[in-house]
Amino acid sequence: MKTFGLSLIMLLTGAMPSLASSGGGEPAEFVNLTTSALGIFSLVLFVGAYSLVIFEEQLHLRKSKPVMLAAGLIWVLVAIAYGAMGDTHTPHEAIKHNLIEYAELFLFLLAAMTYINAMDERNVFQALRSWLVGRGFTLRTVFWVTGLLSFLISPLADNLTTALLMGAVVMAVGGNNKKFVIVACINVVVAANAGGAFSPFGDITTLMVWQKGKVEFIEFFAIFFPSLINWIIPAAIMSMTVSKERPEAMAEGIAMKLGAKRIIALFMCTIATAVSFHNFLHLPPAAGMMLGLGYLGFFSYYLKIKEGRLLKGGDQPLDIIGHNPDEHEQSAPAGHGGHAPVGGFDLFRKIARAEWDTLLFFYGVILCVGGLGQFGYLAVTSDFMYNGLGATTANVLVGFLSAIVDNIPVMFAVLTMDPVMSHGQWLLVTLTAGVGGSMLSIGSAAGVALMGTARGTYTFGNHLKWTWAVALGYGASVMAHLWINASLFH
Questions:
Q1: Which of 159, 212, 440, 455 could form a disulfide with 154 if both were Cys (CB 3.0 to 4.6 A apart)?
Q2: Residue in 132, 175, 171 with CA at minimum distance from that of residue 153
Q3: DSSP letter at 331?
Q4: Given pLDDT bands bounded at 50, 70 and 90, which one contains residue 428?
Q5: How many alpha carbons lie under 13 Å from residue 213 in its C-beta half-sphere?
Q6: Considering the domain boundaries, does residue 243 fall inside one?
Q7: Using CA atoms, how far apart are residues 424 and 392, in angstroms rounded to an integer?
Q8: How many helices (H) and strands (E) does the chain have?
């Protein structure tokens, strides 16, 4: 019976060893299992899981859930397939490699998200929004100002946060003017994605490229002008449909809370620390970001003292139900036993407010793609795209794939395939993966987020009407990069 079971597994995996050069988590010598039953089943699992992700808004199913399930099952199949050939070492080492990659990304993003949440709690973004809304600009001026700020803020605050902030400004100013809100939201999405493309902090894909060491921090700025062109062209076209009407100014004044400017400064110091760890100490940037989180931790202690919330109990974290033991018992509502939810700044609440669905989604994606790599799919795809089509065509195609699938799994797959490319080509794929998602509303986190906040106005169909203009900007940005950075393609 045992022999029969082993024979059945060998039949299902049905593959002969073959050599292929690969990068990332795949070993230099791997077994080509792309035509095996287990390999095909793994591919079906991933496609099925990602289909559920695409329809997240309609199904109300968090995107992390299907990919986490698929990731676990795919690695079970990888272990079975390799175990049938007597190889238990390769899957073990490969999944460890993927887990290390995820851990670096997770810690980096956790620190960055905590800082963004801290600035949000200190009213940094709300103060900017109220200032813009109260200026009394014309609609066309608001269109350009929100687009420009999206382009300039996203390299630091990431494209998702920036799109939500500027989208709120657009809707506050535009009100019931749906025509304006639609084109202004599209403009914000395009600008936020374009701005995030030339900074490691602007998008997950650029962060992955930087952490892999494919492009150094300062080298990202080589695609600044192509990114700018990617936004300017569709913005110029769409702005011609925006009237110069001057909506009534809103007297909405919001002031930043105590320590807001110092938290911004600490975030800048944290970015500098992460860059220094990578460039000078040759340590993972995530370690630098966690050191920066330590800066915020000590500053949160200072804020507790200044806000009079530090009692003899000390600087305690939240308890298991999200309440602060430092709070006075007499301030608690009746029946809460002295554990009332507290106001003010608390570092652990900022960490708790991180986008956990997003962080777990990245886990699922990285493990799914890594598992498919062990079956040989990435090597086959890399050979077809980069050897068959050529690097330039393949990298331009990555942008179109990003609009349909999402740029994160696409870029992680490219990094795992690790094709041999010039520096200019790595910058090209960074650009295309970053801005390609702007062509469809579902192609980027910024677009999906705005569809949720401007529900019924900014929709997939309304964005699709302007896809031609965004595509013109995409093509122009690629041509600009090929011309401006021609010396990097050798």
A1: 159
A2: 132
A3: G
A4: very high
A5: 8
A6: yes
A7: 10
A8: 22, 2
How many domains does the chain contain in total? Answer: 1
- Which residue from 185, 238, 223 is spatially nearest to 472, judged by alpha carbons? 238
Helix (H) or strand (E) holding 17: strand 17-19
**Residue 405, both tokens:** 């699938």
Q: How far apart are CA 26 and CA 475, in angstroms?
A: 33
> Is 480 part of any domain?
no
Paired tokens of 248:
């009534």
Q: What is the mean pLDDT of residues 284-310?
A: 87
Q: Coil, helix or strand for 30?
A: strand
pLDDT tens digits, 431-444:
999 999 899 887 78
pLDDT of residue 343: 59
Measured between alpha carbons, how far is 412 from 365 in angstroms, rounded to an integer? 8
Closest Cα to residue 170, out of 194, 140, 195, 202? 140
Residue 162 located in a structural domain: yes
Burial code (b: 16+ CB inside 10 Å, e: under 16) for 380-402 equals ebbeebbeeeebbebbbbbbbbb
Strand, helix or coil for residue 326: coil
| Residues shown for the chain | 490
DSSP codes joined into one string, 415-439: HHH-----HHHHHHHHHHHHHGGGG
271: Cβ contacts below 8 Å, ≥ 6 apart: 156, 201, 292
Question: Is residue 302 situated within a structural domain?
Answer: yes
Domain that holds residue 129: 106-352
CA 208/CA 445 separation, integer angstroms: 16
